[in-house]
TrEMBL record:
It comes from Chondromyces crocatus. This is Carbohydrate-binding module family 96 domain-containing protein. PROSITE patterns: PROKAR_LIPOPROTEIN. Residues 315-327 have a biased composition (Pro residues). The keyword Secreted applies. Residues 82-228 form the Carbohydrate-binding module family domain. One of its GO terms (cellular component) is extracellular region. Keywords: Secreted, Signal. It is found in: Secreted.
Length: 327
C-alpha cells in the first residue's frame, strides 16, 4: 500500500517538475541570446579606441555626389571594370593582384599601388565638372603624405610586375593627402587630369590607364577591389555638368529671332473668344475625343479614351487651326 501511494505521488509530481524544467530552459535560452547579441568579437580589430557597434563615423560615411550634377561612380560591384595591384622593386617579377589590400611605401621593400578604371563609356561631348579618386586607408598609427600619379602605359591586374611596368607613370603628382591615425576614407581631385585625357582621346584613341599610389616614407596599405565591403573599394567619381542636346529642326533657339509658332490659346478660348458648348456640334466634339451623354451614362467600352461630361456648359479649347462649326 505504501509503495502504491509513493508511485502515485511520484507520478503527480512529475508534470510539475517537467513544467518547471521547461521554464528554466526558456529563461536560459533568452539570457543566452541576449548575451550573444551584446557580445562583440574584438579579436580582429586594430588597437585603439573603437566606437560602439552600429555607430557610423564621419570616415565611414559614403561620399555624397555633388548637387546639381549627374555623377557616375566607377567601382567594382557598382559600375564599370576596376583593377588594382601592388608591385615590388625587390621582387621585380612578383605580381600581387588578388589580395584584399594594396600597399605602397619606401620601407624595407619599395612598393607601388596601381589602380585602373575602364572609362570607355564616358562620352566625349560632355563636360566633366568634377572627378575624384577615392581610396580607403587601413589602420595606421602614423601620419604620412601619400601622392597620386597618372599611369602612362597599359597594364593587367594579374600580370603587372615591377619588371614589366618599369617607369610607366608620371613623376609629377596629380594630388596628395595625409594619412591619419586609425582608418578611413580619402579623396584626391583629378578633374584637370581627366579633362586633359578626355580631350586627347579622340585624336590618340587610347584608354585611361589609371593611377599610381606612392608613399615616400613608411609603407601604408589601402583596401583593394577584392575587399568584402563595397564602400571600402577604390572608386572614381565623375560628375558631368550636362549633355549636348541638338534642338529639333525648325526650333527657334535664339530668343531674339521672331517666332513662327502660333500663340497658344488660353483655356476656354478659341482665337481669343470664349467658347460655349451650344456653339459646338456633336461632330466637332467627337473630333476632340469628348463623349456627350446623359448625366449617368458610362463611357462605351469601345471608346475608353473619351470622357463623360455632365454639365451643359463647359469651356473647351480645340487645337489651334480647327475651323469653327457653323451656327
Amino acid at each position: 500500500m505504501f509503495q502504491r501511494n509513493s508511485r502515485l505521488l511520484a507520478l503527480s509530481v512529475l508534470p510539475v517538475a517537467l513544467a518547471m524544467s521547461a521554464c528554466a530552459m526558456d529563461v536560459d535560452e533568452t539570457e543566452a541570446v541576449e548575451e550573444n547579441e551584446d557580445a562583440i568579437d574584438r579579436r580582429n580589430e586594430p588597437p585603439g579606441m573603437t566606437p560602439p557597434r552600429g555607430t557610423q563615423t564621419d570616415r565611414e560615411r559614403e561620399p555624397t555626389p555633388h548637387h546639381g550634377s549627374r555623377c557616375r561612380i566607377y567601382r567594382r560591384g557598382e559600375h564599370g571594370h576596376v583593377k588594382d595591384a601592388t608591385i615590388h622593386r625587390e621582387a621585380p617579377d612578383y605580381n600581387e593582384g588578388e589580395l584584399e589590400t594594396i600597399s605602397a611605401g619606401q620601407g624595407e621593400r619599395r612598393k607601388l599601388a596601381l589602380i585602373g578604371f575602364d572609362l570607355s563609356d564616358l562620352d566625349d561631348d560632355v563636360e566633366i565638372e568634377r572627378a575624384d579618386l577615392g581610396i580607403w586607408q587601413t589602420w595606421t598609427d602614423s601620419e604620412t603624405p601619400v601622392t597620386v600619379h597618372a599611369i602612362r602605359d597599359a597594364w593587367r591586374e594579374h600580370e603587372v610586375t615591377w619588371h614589366n611596368f618599369g617607369d610607366g607613370h608620371e613623376h609629377e603628382p596629380l594630388g596628395s593627402f595625409m594619412t591619419h591615425h586609425g582608418e578611413g576614407h580619402h579623396e584626391v581631385d583629378v578633374t584637370k587630369h581627366l579633362e586633359t585625357w578626355r580631350h586627347h582621346r579622340p585624336r590618340h584613341g587610347h584608354e585611361h590607364h589609371g593611377f599610381v599610389i606612392d608613399v615616400p616614407g613608411k609603407r601604408h596599405a589601402f583596401r583593394s577591389s577584392e575587399s568584402e565591403r563595397i564602400e571600402h573599394r577604390p572608386f572614381l567619381r565623375v560628375c558631368l555638368a550636362g549633355i549636348t542636346i541638338v534642338p529639333p529642326r525648325g526650333l527657334r533657339t535664339n530668343p531674339r529671332e521672331p517666332s513662327t509658332t502660333p500663340p497658344r490659346e488660353e483655356p476656354g478660348r478659341l482665337h481669343g473668344q470664349p467658347v460655349r458648348l451650344p456653339e459646338m456640334t456633336r461632330e466637332h466634339l467627337r473630333r476632340h475625343l469628348i463623349h456627350i451623354g446623359p448625366p449617368h451614362t458610362r463611357t462605351p467600352h469601345h471608346e475608353p479614351h473619351r470622357r463623360h461630361l455632365r454639365g451643359p456648359l463647359i469651356p473647351v479649347t480645340p487645337p489651334h487651326g480647327t475651323p469653327m462649326p457653323p451656327h
